[in-house]
Design a protein that fits this description.
The chain has 2 domains: 192 residues, Rossmann fold, CATH 3.40.50.300; 102 residues, CobW-like, C-terminal domain (Hypothetical Protein Yjia, Chain: A,domain 2, 2-Layer Sandwich). By secondary structure, the protein is α/β, with parallel strands linked by helices. The chain is globular. The protein is built from 9 helices and 13 strands.
């Protein structure tokens, strides 16, 4: 029996990780599932979150857009996992910069295509913060919506009714037609919604449709960076295992990993995330921190909104920022603040 594979796609901060956690809670006990997380970030936060909150093995592929620099690594990882573990289902979360059409083509034409059944492609959108004009001018949205079988309009509790109606209309005019368009607050969709074949198959024929073609994106994820910043040397931070940075276009990811013995003051971390939320160049901030002898706290900031929850992750503490390379934060000041947030 072939391995079922679902793509869970969507822009940064749309709620893909939350949706995957909800799907994992519905996994049949007799089935063996795997997660493959392809993160743009330098140190990999989402994989750590998912691994800490489920009994499902997670393979992380950090660093690189799935349709270019990480493409070969994704193919090699899928081959290895299928050969070694023979899973019933793989949930694959591409980076928010990834285009699902390229990934579907990779799977269809790779050597293991006869071992994988591509099932529903899921696209998650932040209903509150998606710029509806982007649906018409950015090619990444064309790929995300047109390739999706299931669209999840997430965070509807933060969106007004007019915004939701515009997104619904955009989904209904897509080609091919969507199987389902869900409106959710926490990415909660039923498992049967993803248990059917993706529309791309030898029997499927693309035909012309009445929609006008979308104009090329003004922000191309594959463009070379207009500005390559030079980061200062790392501060002498206690317990710092590594500091990594990675640039893709005009986006820069900076990540820090700390040894598990380092304990942070959670209220000081809250203040730092509140400060990051006010910086116009910070797109996203995620961190898992030891805040006590047996507690870890997950902080997340996207679209200026901050959340924090307790998680079971114990391997280390880590922070990752996604920022405009031309509008950097003061990295040295942040590292000094992190040092001050550590408990003596």
């Amino acid at each position: 029996m072939n391995t079922a594979l679902n793509l869970v796609c969507g822009p940064l901060g749309s709620g893909k990780t939350t949706l995957i956690r909800h799907l994992l809670s519905q996994k049949p006990e007799a089935e063996h599932w795997l997660l493959v997380v392809n993160e743009f970030g330098a140190v990999g936060i989402d994989g750590a979150i998912l691994q800490s909150q489920s009994n499902t093995a997670v393979a992380q592929i950090p660093g690189g857009c799935i349709c270019c620099t990480a493409k070969g690594e994704v193919e090699a990882t899928l081959k290895r996992l299928i050969e070694q573990q023979q899973p019933d289902r793989i949930l694959l979360e591409p980076t928010g910069l990834g285009e699902p059409d390229n990934l579907v083509d990779l799977i269809r034409f790779a050597d293991f295509k006869d071992a994988i059944d591509i099932q529903a492609v899921i696209t998650v959108l932040d209903a509150a913060h998606t710029d509806t004009q982007d649906l018409e001018r950015m090619t990444i949205y064309q790929s995300l919506l047109n390739m999706a079988d299931v669209v999840v309009l997430n965070k509807i509790d933060l969106a007004d009714e007019q915004k939701i109606n515009v997104l619904q209309k955009a989904c209904q005019t897509c080609f091919p037609p969507k199987d389902t368009v869900f409106e959710t607050q926490q990415g909660q969709i039923p498992l049967p919604a993803i248990e059917h074949s993706h529309f791309v198959s030898p029997a499927f024929t693309f035909t012309q449709h009445s929609m006008s073609p979308l104009t090329p994106s003004q922000v191309k994820s594959h463009l070379p960076p207009a500005h390559t910043p030079k980061l200062p040397s790392p501060q002498p931070l206690p317990g710092l295992v590594e500091r990594q940075s990675r640039q893709h276009g005009d986006l820069l990811s900076i990540g820090w990993v700390f040894s598990p013995e380092i304990v942070f003051r959670w209220d000081w971390l809250r203040d730092q995330f509140q400060s990051l939320a006010t910086h116009p160049g910070v797109h996203r901030a995620k961190g898992i921190f030891a805040v006590g002898a047996s507690s870890r706290m997950l902080f997340q900031m996207a679209q200026g909104e901050i959340t924090r929850t307790l998680v079971a992750y114990r391997k280390d503490s880590r922070l990752e920022l996604l920022i405009d390379s031309a509008n950097l934060i003061d990295v040295s000041a942040l590292e000094k603040a992190l040092s001050e947030a550590m408990q003596p």
